[in-house]
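Record 1 of the preview.
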Amino acid sequence: MDNIKFELKANIVEELEAFSQILKKSPSDILNEALEQYLNAQQEILNKKNQDDENALTNLDYDEFWDDLDFDD
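->
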């Protein structure tokens, strides 16, 4: 895997260090947990958007669905 360069603001680094001591977790563990929560939330948003987009394409009411069908043989 390629290395990714992260640049964190100084105040974020300070808070990360403080929470690391308070929670007795490594900064890496805290960042991994936070990113996992963020990515899961974003995936849920994308899933909902995709579902909404799909529903928009098929969101016909009963009459709209049956109006254009011809049942005469």
